[in-house]
Design a protein that fits this description.
The protein has 191 residues and is an alpha+beta fold. It has four helices and six strands. It has a five-stranded mixed barrel with strand order 1-2-3-5-4. The radius of gyration is 25 Å and the shape is elongated.
C-alpha cells in the first residue's frame, strides 16, 4: 500500500494537465475586428522554429523555450492588413492551433502575436475557431464561405507589394534601359 501511494504521488507530481480545445465558430464581424490580416494564401514554406531568446519564466533552461510551427503563406488576395505578399503564421504546439499543410490554400484570419521575425516582419497567429479554413472545403455544404461577405465588407482589396506591381522599381528599370540604349546608340554612331 505504501508503494502504491508513493507511485501515485510520483505520477501526480510529474504529470501535465491536458487541455482540449473547445470553442464555437467566431461570428463573422467579431473575426474581422480581431484579425489584423485577412487573406487567401497558399503555404509556400513550413518550418519548425523556437524563440531565439529564452522566456522570462525559464531564462536559464533552454529546453523550456517556446517552440513553434511556422507557416509562410504566399498571398493571392487580401481584404485587410499590410501590403506584404507573404505572411508568417506561427502556431504553438497546443490543441487549438490550426494545422496547415504544405501546398494547400487557405482563407486566413490572422492576428499579430506581438513578435517580430528575424527579418523584421511581424509574426501572426491563428487558431482553430478563428474562421480560417482550407479552400478545399468551400465546395462542401456544411461549412461557411466568407469570400462574398469579405468582398462586400472590403470592396477594395489590399494591393500587395511585389516586384511586379511595384511601380518605382519598374520606372527605374525603364529609365535605366532608355539611358543604356541611348548611350549604346551614340557610342555606335561615333564609330
Amino acid at each position: 500500500m505504501r508503494n502504491f501511494t508513493l507511485i501515485l504521488f510520483l505520477f501526480s507530481a510529474f504529470s501535465q494537465t491536458a487541455i482540449a480545445c473547445s470553442c464555437g465558430t467566431v461570428p463573422f464581424e467579431e473575426a474581422i475586428s480581431n484579425s489584423d490580416e485577412i487573406f487567401i494564401g497558399r503555404i509556400i514554406k513550413l518550418e519548425y522554429d523556437r524563440d531565439l531568446l529564452p522566456s522570462k519564466t525559464h531564462e536559464s533552461l533552454p529546453m523550456f523555450r517556446q517552440q513553434y510551427w511556422v507557416a509562410t503563406l504566399g498571398v493571392s488576395k487580401k481584404w485587410k492588413g499590410s501590403k506584404s505578399s507573404t505572411i508568417r503564421v506561427r502556431q504553438t504546439k497546443n490543441s487549438c492551433e490550426f494545422e496547415f499543410q504544405f501546398g494547400k490554400e487557405y482563407i486566413v484570419f490572422a492576428e499579430s502575436d506581438g513578435s517580430i521575425g528575424w527579418n523584421g516582419t511581424k509574426n501572426y497567429t491563428t487558431w482553430l475557431c478563428s474562421r480560417t479554413i482550407d479552400t478545399f472545403y468551400l465546395s462542401e455544404d456544411w461549412t461557411w464561405d466568407d469570400r462574398d461577405s469579405l468582398d462586400e465588407k472590403f470592396p477594395n482589396p489590399v494591393q500587395t507589394a511585389s516586384f511586379f506591381n511595384n511601380w518605382p522599381v519598374w520606372s527605374l528599370l525603364v529609365i535605366v534601359s532608355i539611358g543604356y540604349c541611348t548611350f549604346y546608340i551614340r557610342k555606335r554612331s561615333a564609330l
